[in-house]
Protein 1
Amino acid sequence: MATIKIKQVKSAIKRPADQKATLKALGFRKLNQVVEHEATPQILGMVKKVQHMLVVVQ
């Protein structure tokens, strides 16, 4: 299966608790961190939920 690299570019400060939990579940701990995941429907749904704070990197 394909992999996807995502980078957090905006802070989770003053965001709803469910969005903070989604970032934590994706493995983000700090700003500008890049994580790599399999491109499963579950991961893609989590990325879509917080897409305003993320960027997909190649």
Protein 2
Amino acid sequence: MLLASLSSSCIYPTGPIPWDRWRPTYPEHVKIPLAEKIGRIESHLRSRHLSPEGVLVYHRPDREFSPGEAGGYQNLADEAMWTGCLLAAFAFKYSITRTPADREAVLLVLKGLRLLHRVTGRSGLLARAIFPAALELPGEKPSQKWRSGAVPHSNYRYRGDVSKDQYFGVLFGYAVAATVLGIDAGSGDAELRELMAPEVAAIADHIWDNDLRIVDADGETTTFGNLRGFIAGVPIGPNADLCLGWQLLAARLNGAERFGRHYRSLLGRGYHEATACNKFQFLGLTNHNNDNMAMLGLYSLIALESDAGVKAVYQKSLRRLWGWVRHEGNLFFNLVDAARAGEAPPEQLRRDMAETFLLFPVDLRVRAVDLKGHPLVQPSCFRGRKGALRNQTALPLHLRSLSSFIWKSSPYALEADLDAKGDETYSGMDYLLVYWLARYHGLLPEAQSNR
């Protein structure tokens, strides 16, 4: 665990968000009951960001989705990842409501994930995004590797060179659906299972048969397709999370002995211990998406694992990671820790969750953020990635810029989207996920739960 020790010694010194200092800046939307907010955001997502195929087009012009209209679909890089997270949100919701309408939402997104897999024509290879071939694709570049879909999906084009991010989001969605809806190889909703089990088996086999790599349609490893849990002897936690998770999930949903054998082989190589090494940071320079991928992977592993000893290793890895990001006011990270770490949430975590639930906006338009002259900002002498200006402590959510998934964005950034015109929106899937995750685990703040 040398890498974990080195990285922890280089963590940027910060502290908890000073909520009392920021409270006078709170916007009017904090008064909206959470039950009303979730309804408005889900309506926004369904009308503007969910394609007829069941794929989340997470960043679009601010208008209703029209499948045949130029500009309805967008040139995006992470549809598989965020569609997977949307599946998790809808599965959490359906596990609570058990309504036919919510089951249909789960079915639709499962069909979208199946298309994102099968459109490539290569077993286990996901597409980053899809686009109807008859429509014009805005902003296409050769480097994005858009390709024609394989038969019988040749009426689509898909974006190649898929990254590990996509596999994390899809793993998380399938793992949540399987565990919260009680689906495995021998029980549960058969229609839902048949939309998951073959896809999961194909992906698990693809990763294993290609020596823990993602191999593109051209036979080459994708740019970020090396998934080995140890590289040059150094443990890479997110990679270990991903390799373990797909084999464990495939064993649950398919029952084939090979998946259990592959999983045990990874345990024998120390992959479960490598899951402790998720955080890489030096004086504020870090990639918050690595933290997010690790949270998706560790939640999945802890939910799926039945062996108490191995589960305890994953829970220890989760606790270690949360210890490094605990001051960021990140609602998704806090909920994953509270739900799966096996320990009672500390007071700071509970307060951060309560405040952040209130602060998530209802208006999901992309907006410019420029806080350099804000009287309460305390600029840091250390810069973030690409020289970005940052605050000394994490900013409360209402002052941050929106993104495809706000929980993966830097909570310290003082500038973002400076050229935004307010004519585009994000989907709000990031709020749907945390709301229904919290409802499922009994972690929604009681004063606002309206349950």
Protein 3
Amino acid sequence: MTRSLKKGPYIDERLLKKIQGKKPLETGVIKTWSRSCQISPEMIGFTFGVHNGKVHVEVLVTEDMVGHRLGEFSPTKKFIKHGGKMQKDQEQKKKEAEIASAQSAKAAVADKK
């Protein structure tokens, strides 16, 4: 559910104080734990370090991000990959193909000399 229009967007006042009167290019990373804070037009150009539960992920705010939440750009879960025998076979074939193409490229270079 979205926040009601009567209440207005939630923007953390501490973040606004941190960026107030500063230039985006001169300011470094601004660390924050406020993932639920909406991005306002005043934040464009600043780099925020949004905490994902473990580390601060750097997020450079652009015009397209206005209206979204800071937490949307700092994923909390790390996707590794889907496993299984089929996946391993595909990866092995890919490596073999890369090795074969590298060897053929070396042979072609050696033949030119």
